[in-house]
Design goal:
Elements lengths: L10 H14 L17 E6 L5 E8 L5 E6 L7 H14 L4 E2 L1
Parallel strand pairs: 1-4
Antiparallel strand pairs: 1-2, 2-3
Amino acid sequence: MSRSAVSPLVTGFLVAACIRDSNERGFPATLVHRGDEERGTILLKIDRRDKGYELWTQIRSADGEPDWLRIQPDRLLTSLDAHDYTIRAIARDRDLWVV
């Protein structure tokens, strides 16, 4: 079967599976915002405890494959900065999933 003939997983299913897998591995994950069930983009908000937060957004690579882009890759964000970014991202894209 060609790569183009393979249907991608719907976002809601993918998010639920990743949250369950993460929790089973001992890394607590929760759904912060539910986006469009079939086609929403994913934003990961990773709490590095007292060090700050990493934000990763889902993108497509140059060859069309799913990939991840770290927001502010040179530093960790404060809780307030991560929260503000998340609120602005949801306002721009109501289909966005935040985990």
